[in-house]
Amino acid sequence: EEEGGEESREAVTDEELLQAAFLLALHQTVKDADLPLLTSTLYAQHVLPACRQLRYGRELNLKKTPWKKFGTFLQAMEADGLVTTHTPKAGVVHLSAVNRLHDTLLAFDPAEHQAEEKEKEEEEKKKGAAGAGAAAASIKVPTKGSKVIQIRLVKVRGNKNLTTVHNLGGFGVVLDDALRQEVAKKFSASVSYTPSPNAREGLIMNVQGKYVLQLQAFLQERCGLEKKHFQVDAKGLSKQVKEANL
Q1: pTM exceeds cut of 0.85
Q2: Tens-digit pLDDT profile for residues 186-227
Q3: What is the distance between the alpha carbons of residues 38 and 211, in angstroms, rounded to a whole number?
Q4: Distance between CA 9 and CA 118 in Å, rounded?
Q5: How far apart are CA 171 and CA 229, in angstroms?
Q6: I want to staple 46 with a disulfide (CB 3.0 to 4.6 A). Which of 18, 25, 141, 235 is the partner?
Q7: At a CB cut-off of 8 Å and minimum separation 6, what does 232 contact?
């Protein structure tokens, strides 16, 4: 059985992996009510999490697909009639519609591609054991643009507080659904990602509540970052708020 599992991992190509993850995401998490959806959000919060649900047990490498970039892949899917995109301004692309009656989507059976629950649990255990070391190994200090990760507290919708983390992507940190869920569980807070105006910085992490220093401590441990990598604005926070969850 183990040999068969290894064989299935090697047999599937990155092209097939991307297509399966995309179709699984369209089936399960991309809802018409959520459209239009930024392509960066579509990839980070829908396609990558769907990839981890597949039975093939390995990460996707976009560079090894014929499209090289997710935007190019999406253009191919639009040419095939599966989706429709919209570009409100240069460099900003939205997924605006999904053809739910397309033959490719109708023929795709999620159950045939998803891992069994036991397989998922074992895969998560393996990832957990290697997680900290792998995260630390992937850290890279930017050579261009901002060379720090900025953590700020902002007010939104009246009196609500939002802690924002900028430039994690610049340091090689992957802002995926696994990290989002981990932060949400750690702080019992709503967590989301939004695109940064600066493309080099990737996505911005948004955590509901006052968790400026707490997020710094968490990210240092979780991602192998150092204190010098952060620029934290904790002005005006009470001692109680600063020390909560630390």
Answers
A1: no
A2: 888 888 988 888 777 788 999 998 888 889 988 988 888 888
A3: 27
A4: 17
A5: 9
A6: 25
A7: 150, 151, 212, 213, 216
